[in-house]
Every structure is written in C-alpha cells, then in structure tokens.
Amino acid sequence: MSARWSVLGVENAGFAYNKGYVFRHVSFLLDDARSALVGENGAGKSTLLKCLAGELELDEGHLVRSRSTKVGYVPQEAPAGLGALSVREVMQRALARGGAEGEDWRIDVMVDEIGMDPALLDNPFATLSGGWQRLVLVASAAILEDPDILVLDEPTNHLDLANIATLERWLTEVIKLPMLIVSHDREFLNRVTSRTIFLRADGAHAFKTPFSVARQSLLERDTADARRRSLEEKEIRRLEETCARYKVWAQKNDEFDKKRKIVERRIERMEAAKTKVYVARDRKLELGDGEMEAKVALRVEGVTVKAPDERALFAIERLAVRAGDRIALLGINGAGKSTLLTELAAAFAAKDAHYDGKAKVRFNPGARLAVFDQAMADLPLDSSLIEYLAEVDGIGEREAIQALVRAGFPHRRMEQPIALLSHGERARLKFLRLKSERPNFYLLDEPTNHLDIEGQEDLETQLAEAEVACLFVSHDRYFTRTAATRFLEIRRGKLVEVEDPDEFFEAQE
C-alpha cells in the first residue's frame, strides 16, 4: 500500500441541486486518521463524498486535493454495469485504476485474504450476495487500487454480522490508510473511527474522538452556545430599556442623547457578534399505534420456513407475539429471517387466515399490519411525496402537506418525485406513510439501513413508547440491543428464544 503524502478536503464548499443547496459553508481537511462523516438524512453526505472523489463538482468553494492524491471510493450502491461482469473482471478494473493492470496475482492474494472461494471469481458479479458485493468492492478499492485515502459510503449496508466483523478487522488492522467513512451504524463507527466530522446546515464540525464521545461534545457545545446566546439577548434587552430611558431624558438634557447613541452602537455590535445557535429541523420519526384489544397479536404453530427452492430452513414449534413485544430475529445470512417476515406478511394478506383457529399462522382479528422491507421496493419512485401520502384513506392533499412539514420535508421538495430523495429520506417517508395507516403490528426488515442516527433513536423511542407488536431483522447491534424486548435465534434448524443477543454477536465476530 502506498505511503505517499496526500491532502484531501474542502474549503467553504457548497453544492446546489434543484434550486436549493444540499450543503454550504463546509470546510475540513482529512488527516491520517479513520474519520467518520455523520449527518442527518438529506444533509448531503453522499453528495459530498462524490465531490471528494471527483464525480461531482462543487458549486461554491474549493476542493482541496494535492495533485498526486489517489482516492479509493466505494459508493453506497454498486455502480451500474458491474452485474454482467465476472467477479474477476470487476477486480481487474480496480487493478487498472491502481496502475497494476495485468498483475492478477494480486487478485489471488486478496481473495485469500478476504476468505472468498476462488471458484466464484469467474461467476457474474450479480450472482454474489449483496454482502459479498460490498466486501469485494471495498477490498478492491482499498487494496487493488492502491489509494492514498479511502472514502466509503455506508460500507456495512447488506453485510451480515460476520462480514461486518470482517470489515471492522480489515479497516482497523489490515488497511493502513487514512479514511473517510459515512455510516449510520453507531457501534461500527465507535469501533473503527477515531475522528468524527458532523455535517450540518451550519457547516462541518470536527472532533478528534470516536462518534459517541464526539457527539456528546457537540451536544454540550450546542447547549453552551444556547446558554451564552440567552445571556447575550438578556443583556441586549437591558440595554434597549436603557436606550428608551435615555431617549425620554434627552428631551430635557442633550447629554442623554449622546449616551443613547453610544449604547445603540454597543447594541449593534452585540447583535452582529451574537453567538450562533444551531437549531435542528423538527423532523421526528413517529410510529402509529392503533389499539389492539386482545393481548396476543400473533400465534404461530407447526410452521416450517422454506427457501424458494423448497429447502427447509428452520421450524417454529410454537410462537406467541403479545401486544408490546419487540422481537429481534437473530441468525446468519441465509438462515431465513427475511423469509419468515415475508411469509408472515403473506399470511396476513389472506383475510380468512386471521379468523381460522386451525391456521398455522393466526393474527389477532384487530391486527393492522405494517411491513417495511429493506429494499423499499413498493415506493412509487415517479410519484410525488404528496401523491404518495394522499393515497391513504382519509388523507387529502392538505393533510399530506401538513404531515410532510412535521416530518421535516421542505415545501420545495413535496411535489418532486420520490426518486430524487436520498435513501434515508425515502425511509423516513415510508415510515410516515406507515404511521398514517395507524398499524399496531410491525414487520421491519433492516429498518435502520438508511436512517440517520437521529432517526434510529426516534424509532427506538417510538417502539418503546407505543404499545405495538413488532418483529424485526437488523444487523445493527446497537439498535438490536436497544429496541428489542425479546430475542429469537435461528439455531440448528429451529427458532429458539434466547436471553440476550450478545452470545450470537460474539459468535459472529
């Protein structure tokens, strides 16, 4: 790996899209640390990474980049056109970008390092699982391209816990490079990064500490700024009252008019130098919590979950889900977690099964189901945000606009197609739609994949406060520990209840 001196960053950077700025007044320089870039959905993190990688040009400010700096960049989604290539050809392209075209022995070394079956090299890239695609792209960018700086956008997306642990090991022990990483996985950030940059509407804020410590420092600074601003405004009000008295007294004595002007100039200086206080957009993510009369929301008995090829994955002897249960499904990739959620959703769609006492899957008659799939495949990307919400019974255009405003979506974007939203904003919109349907039972497949950290915390809080039933699948260890009240693990062909997820997490690591 190269050890060339390199510089990468931005100075007073801004980027505009569709008549509005995605970000402005952003300045920072990367150092030799593994840095996290954190921000709310729609703050422009992915756009900023594309600017750093040279795929987009800034509208304001400057890209700071030494001429010799090579950036290894892995976007959030696999680039178009890779699916039809073989895995080897994808890696050969990375070799060529690194100036080592034809040195295929490097591919063999890397494949051995990442624990990949060499027989897969001649398979189409599209046949790899989403997790393996991510690992191949990250490893290729970091090793085969021989970069000076590695820039990763949501590298843990589509990875199971074992692969996340592998990625953590690579990034901390094997790949000795400066990095800039965008991720909403709090535990991953705390383990991998040592520096944190927060991207907000008021610019970039850098801390030389891991995410959790840096975030606490930022919150404390915001609180101190707000306190200082309050004292400044109190002093300005006192001086304004003094000016008002001087104005009255000046009618009898001109000296007070001179004093009034001196105080007014002091007020002007204080107004210009007032402490700036960051105010986050009010965009709380909320869940609907329709009532369910009976305590048991779902009963499952004698069910065998099967793969699409009819191969048995695991059996459920008996399962009862009560109102208020928040159940995390644990299991390795391919164990059948998402398949179970899909089968439960299909069983709910068959209305007669809700009331059939002999059915293997029996929902409470009062259950109103909401399903969140990680691909968000049911989002009509060509529809506007208003049109999508107004499809719900009882919600007109006015109600849809009000709901979007409360969720933090600006007016200028409400009539734009959903396709223009970031993945995180799409997730927030999806949850807003689910809330409007007032469900009381949630099936959530990787709900935090694209939510920003504030959104994840909102979701954790809402699940805790709402008396809804919930089964969810997540590779986010922090969210799983915080959100769940029960844990079910797919173990040796059966679904068994476990006390906590830590033994499973440790086994995967």
Write the layout of secondary structure elements.
Blueprint: E1 8-17, E2 20-29, E3 34-38, H1 45-53, E4 60-65, E5 71-74, H2 87-97, H3 105-114, H4 130-144, E6 149-153, H5 161-174, E7 179-182, H6 186-192, E8 195-200, E9 203-207, H7 211-249, H8 254-272, E10 296-306, E11 312-322, E12 326-330, H9 337-349, E13 361-363, E14 369-372, H10 385-390, H11 397-406, H12 423-436, E15 441-445, H13 453-465, E16 469-473, H14 477-483, E17 486-491, E18 494-498, H15 502-508
Parallel strand pairs: 3-7, 3-8, 5-6, 6-7, 12-16, 12-17, 14-15, 15-16
Antiparallel strand pairs: 1-2, 1-4, 8-9, 10-11, 10-13, 17-18
Helix pairs in contact: 2-4, 3-4, 7-8
Short description:
This protein has helices at 45-53, 87-97, 105-114, 130-144, 161-174, 186-192, 211-249, 254-272, 337-349, 385-390, 397-406, 423-436, 453-465, 477-483, 502-508; strands at 8-17, 20-29, 34-38, 60-65, 71-74, 149-153, 179-182, 195-200, 203-207, 296-306, 312-322, 326-330, 361-363, 369-372, 441-445, 469-473, 486-491, 494-498. It is of the alpha/beta class and 509 residues long.
